[in-house]
Amino acid sequence: MKITKVDVYMLDAGEQRWQRKPIICRIHTDEGIYGDGEAGIALGIGSTGAFGMVKDLAGLIIGMDPMNVEVIWNKMFKSSFWGMGGGAIVFAGISAIDIALWDIKGKVLGVPCYQLLGGKFRSKMRSYASQLQFGWCDRIGPYGKPEEYAEITQYALDQGYDAVKIDFTQIGPDATHLPKSECEGIPTRKFIDMVEARMKAVRDNCGWDFDMIVENHCRTDAISAVIIGELCDKYKAMALEEPTIPMNPMMHKAVHDKIKTPIASGERIFGRWHYMNNFMENNVQLLQPDVCNCGGLTEAKKICDMGQVFDVTVQAHCAGSPISTAAALHLEAAIPNFCIHEHHFRSTQPSLTVLCKYDYQPERGVYTVPELPGLGQEMSQFGMDTALMHVVVDRDERGL
Q: Coiled-coil stretches, from where to where (predicted)?
């Protein structure tokens, strides 16, 4: 079997287009079997960079055997020159191709990807309702008032979730975006009071018998993160996510050393080499690798296994298209140190779910791992027909 061509798409997420442009590749073979993979840079700025990276990497794999997943991964990593330096764009490109290869391999062998990763530890996975500051399902935010945070939390709990995640720093009291500068350094009393009022409202109105992850999105630094971390201790948070910029792991440790709440991080770290320093210094307790940007299923499994050595538990970051959801579920099913699955607010919206063939959603806060061969997910015809960009790579354009 040989790889004959690679289609690269930038999908149109409709009303989410302002922030999400999923980058998907479809790898074709001479036996008619194809596989889909995603580059996890749909969120924020960088989608065109990821699109170009997948296109460039695709030229390296034309004519290769798609079953040789590790061989191809190492070729992309080492022959791309920039792969060995890491970085979001390069690793997102590697991830998309790698996931598509696992999809092909599963289809060839007639088994779900989790079987190829070693088999499943679980069929059902507890999930949490993520990013409630923006709303949940048909209740659309953003929210500014403390009572609104309590109301949207209760709305998710009433649907069967027993865990939620909220960024209490992202939206101001007037429900508009709060500048990052408000969250850094020694925060004002007004800022601290705003954050605590929201946490308190959630606990006072919704109770203490559910888990609450506090999301900071790297908006805080070590100084302000410690102050919010103390509130996390007070209001019994499950974890404090991305308290500082992850490029300096010592700052995560500085926060962890001063609070009891576990630190969650990993969605903006790429490749096992970048994770190692976080493990060695005990900087992260809830690991959040994104299968679509950390190096694909090949690398994500290695990262999670490495984390187990350091007693680190895992929740895959999952904020892309339904293909990223399927990839995360297969990984989480196949690792012993799974903690919980992220069900992102955006993943409940039709503008994303319409881009793929299947709409996997949790029931009463519990996900079921896909059982179809490969990923068990692929682009819909609608997704391909309405793509913002599409290119076909069928040869190595470098002439090598």
A: none
Neighbour tally for 309: CB within 10 Å: 9
Q: Structure tokens of 248?
A: 């300096």
Q: Which of 140, 180, 137 is nearest to 159 (CA)?
A: 137
Average pLDDT rounded to a whole number, residues 264-274: 93
Separation CA 293–CA 300 (nearest Å): 9
Alpha helices of 174-295 — where are they, by DSSP H? 189-206, 222-234, 249-256, 271-280
Q: What are phi and psi of 164, to 5 degrees?
A: -140, 165
d(CA 316, CA 90): 19
Q: Confidence band (pLDDT; 50, 70, 90) for 281? A: confident
Q: What are phi and psi of 340, to 5 degrees?
A: -165, 155
* 365 residue type, one letter: G
Backbone angles phi and psi of 140, in degrees to 5: -95, 130
d(CA 87, CA 247): 11
Q: What distance in Å separates the CA atoms of residue 264 and residue 30, rounded to the nearest whole number?
A: 43
> How far does Cα 284 stand from its chain's mean position?
16
Q: Would you mind telling me the total number of residues written for the chain in this entry?
A: 400
> Exposed (0-12), middle (13-18) or buried (19+): which is 301, by Cβ within 10 Å?
buried
Beta partners for 356? 379
Domains of the chain plus CATH, in order, are: 3-110+379-393 (3.30.390.10), 115-368 (3.20.20.120)
In DSSP terms, 139 is beta-bridged to: 136
For residue 238, what are the contacts with CB-CB under 8 A and spacing of at least 6? 163, 211, 212, 213, 261, 262
Chain centroid to CA 180: 22
pLDDT above 90 for 397: no
Pairing of strands 313-314, 389-393: unpaired
